[in-house]
Amino acid sequence: MWISLGRSNFDEDCIKGIQQNYPQRQIWENKLYMAYRYMIKDAIYKHKLNEDEASMAYSDAILATIHQIDSNKFQQRSSLKTYIFKIFQFKCIDLLRANQTQKSGHNKTEMLEDYLELLPDEQQDILRMLSVKYEVDLLKTKIQAMDERCKTIILAWGEGYKDSEIAEELGYQSSAVAKTSRLRCLEKLKKLYHIIRN
Question: Distance between CA 21 and CA 160 in Å, rounded?
């Protein structure tokens, strides 16, 4: 009986495929992405992340792996599955830490609401309307400051376009790629917005 302790045929084929030129490379990148996609559901259950967060972390892990393979830095000490899993776990932990940090920021909002409760109703309404106007203006300013692709994606999504429609319009291969790009852009916007607010 023969037991293979090395890389699988899939690993070897995938590494060779990713090191080729397009369109062959793109086919192997997609195969790699699809091969371990079940990790997303595992992360949703294990780390209590939402689907978008888990998908983004998984996409980042795949992109990091592809970069390592492409630059000949993947040393093949482990299988692709193990390598991706480790990166994915670290990305999930980073998201958990970021979520925890954001939760601490919600206390400031709750304190503001407590102070508003002390004011008469009419003044509360006026202050809330001013606050909403300020937040909307701030978001618009931050969106306009983003790169053209992110601005286009966020504005299209804000107008109700689906990821599949955005993918078609911007030339992405699939709606999954458009979704990942959208989530990254939203994360950038969130960081820009969060920096200003704190």
Answer: 35
pLDDT tens readout for residues 87-124: 998 888 888 877 776 665 555 556 566 666 666 777 77
Tokens of 20: 């080729």
Asked if residue 140 and residue 78 are part of one domain, the reply reads no
Encode pLDDT of 142-180 as tens digits.
888 889 999 999 889 988 999 889 988 888 888 888 888
* 35 and 87 share one domain: yes
In DSSP notation, the chain reads: -----S--HHHHHHHHHHTS-TTHHHHHHHHHHHHTTHHHHHHHHHH---HHHHHHHHHHHHHHHHHHHHTT----SS-HHHHHHHHHHHHHHHHHHHHHHHHHHHHHHHHHHHHHHTS-HHHHHHHHHHHHHHHHHHHHHHHHTS-HHHHHHHHHHHTT--HHHHHHHHT-SSHHHHHHHHHHHHHHHHHHHHHHH-
pTM above 0.70, yes or no: no
Q: What's the CA gap between 29 and 65, in Å, rounded?
A: 10
Distance of CA 156 to the CA centre of its chain: 17
Which of the listed residues 82, 98, 118 is the one where a domain comes to its end?
118
* Residue partners of 3: CB distance under 8 A and separation at least 6: none
Instruction: Kindly state whether residues 76 and 150 are assigned to the same domain.
Output: no
